[in-house]
Write a structure and sequence with these properties.
de novo design (two linked rop proteins), alpha+beta, binds zinc ion, 9 strands, OB fold (Dihydrolipoamide Acetyltransferase, E2P)
């Protein structure tokens, strides 16, 4: 059976002498793995549209084990992002998150649209860390791990929330925290206010959202711990991004 779909390229790795095994994210089919034959030959027309975080229209043939990619057309190369090391790293980081967290062939149309929107915003605008935080939060929610941010998960009250407990999946109030059974990740009131807006915020809204450096650091630390806790994996690229810390603080408007 032949079919075609617009996809985001998550990654492509060598597969035998001349082929590549390509992992893609499609709105309709979710994450798929497909073989591109002869891709390493200089004249292969597929080369340009199978690079990580490209948006491409691909034609597939459904094989017995793996799909074959028969044709492709580049829809968006995100050229600005590729010319900027930090933007490239952020874009690749999104791909790594998708690669490590999504099951094969489980459609996630909202997450697909968010990924495309985030790649476009990174490409066209400034490097706004809130774009990445919004993506991380929505990925966790999509995976079924919505953090409880507006009340204490232990007693239910919404005053004096002091920090986040990973095992409970939510905030803990000052009173419950004194029971000393919880290891808490600090989240200030500012952080909580921003996190509550992040899920539904459009990219345009994110450029207007102001966050202090402390709040940005806290949110980054929190979401990293939160995703790692649930995915039980380490995100290698995150280390690389940390090295670029000074400019990570920058929030530019497009
Ligand atoms: Zn409590």
């Amino acid at each position: 059976m032949y079919y075609n779909a617009p996809v985001i390229i998550i990654k492509s790795i060598d597969f035998g002498e001349a082929d590549k095994l390509v992992t893609v994210f499609s709105e309709q089919y979710g994450k798929l793995r497909a073989v591109a034959r002869g891709i390493k030959k200089p004249k292969s027309s597929l080369r340009s549209c199978l690079q990580p975080f490209c948006y491409s229209q691909l034609h597939f043939y459904q094989g017995r084990d793996l799909e074959l990619i028969t044709q492709g057309r580049l829809l968006d190369f995100f050229g600005n992002a590729r010319e900027d090391l930090e933007k490239t790293l952020y874009s690749v980081y999104l791909m790594e998150l998708l690669d490590k967290s999504l099951m094969d062939r489980m459609p996630a149309p909202e997450l697909f649209r968010l990924t495309l929107d985030t790649l476009r915003a990174i490409n066209h605008g400034g490097l706004n860390p809130l774009l990445i935080r919004r993506f991380e939060l929505n990925l966790a929610i999509h995976l079924g791990y919505r953090p409880v941010l507006d009340q204490c998960v232990a007693c239910g009250q919404n005053q004096d929330l002091t920090g986040f407990n990973l095992a409970e999946g939510g905030m803990i109030c000052r009173k419950c925290a004194t029971a000393d059974t919880y290891r808490l990740i600090p989240l200030s009131g500012e952080c909580l206010a921003i996190l509550r807006q992040l899920e539904k915020a459009s990219s345009a809204m994110l450029t207007r959202l102001r966050a202090s450096d402390t709040a940005l650091d806290q949110m980054e630390h929190f979401l990293e711990q939160y995703l790692e806790y649930f995915l039980e994996r380490q995100f290698k690229l995150k280390e690389t991004i940390r090295y670029l810390k000074p400019s990570r603080r920058r929030i530019d408007n497009p």
